[in-house]
Amino acid sequence: MSPAKGDESMIIVMKPDAVTGDVDNVVERLAEIGAEAHVSVGQVQTVVGAIGDRETIQQLPWEAFAGVERAVPVLKPYKFVSRDFHPDDTVIDVGGVPMGGGHFAAIAGPCAVESRDQLFTAAEAVHKAGAKILRGDAFKPRTSPYSFQGLEEEGLQYLSEAREEFGMPFVAEVLDPRDVDLVASYADLIRVGTRNMANFTLLSELGRQPKPVLLKRGFTATIEEWLNAAEYIYKEGNHRVILCERGIRTFETATRNTLDISAVPVVKGLSHLPIIVDPSHSGGHRELVAPLTRTAVVAGADGFMVDVHHAPETALVDGAQAILPDEFSALMDQVRALASVMNLQL
Length: 346
Ligand code: PEP
Ligand code: MN
Hints:
Distance between the termini: 50 Å
CATH class of the largest domain: Alpha Beta
Strand order of the largest sheet: 13-12-11-10-9-8-7-14
Bound molecules: phosphoenolpyruvate, manganese (II) ion
Mean pLDDT: 95
Oligomer: single chain
């Protein structure tokens, strides 16, 4: 079987002094041979990613073209999300909040929206403490089908009201491709949960809607599988994908999942996309939230997402890992100190 389109690709790296006409010339030649071209203008060099039949692309004497430095094959299974295709960090705007490329953002709020009051109490507190994006889920299928399942559209309405009140964009999860339009009509950032990282129908659907996506790592997924999942969204045309490391399943039982902090620098090397850390769902215990968050900042993450609840003992979902508003505020002081060491803007 011949490889599917996109299985093969090359990158054509332009010289630092290449002019626009040189890049246009490369793009035109690629079009003539039936290859797709994706131009990425970097701070130092422009890179043209070419997807098509590699042999046909390789036959052209690229290094003889004006302004071309070299042409190299991309051997990774993911292309657009790889750093080869886009050498500079991508900065993603989430409802006015920049993330990536030195812009760090704190995302906080309740795991699930339980009532308007509960959400507003958390939103007010996290806003005051310096969080830039609010979290809260309206769709919450649980291990048991008889547990609280979320307020659905009513929850999204409360989140939108909180956005108005506190001037914070919000992130909410979508689980079903049939709910994508509904969630996208309210949320500023749409989250894919760990259990859905490999739901390729959902990922492709999210690639065809306008809101940025926060893609959690599957708890049994390798980094390569995770980047392939991001590629599913990206290749459909939605280039605003943020990755979230949330722990993986290991033999260790002292934590809910093992936070793979190495994933942060590894992903930074492999991909240009922003990556954040979720210390709540990885550790699974409130005592671990602050140390794991501090680690994330110094490991080079572009942000973090944490569960905050004013009365965790009454929380309908994930009370054991929710921190109190005051604890979040103290954590933000530490995050600000570490962010300045890391030269991050927040
Ligand atoms: C969440 O962030 O609320 C959540 C359910 O996370 P995960 O999908 O990582 O378990
Ligand atoms: Mn949760």
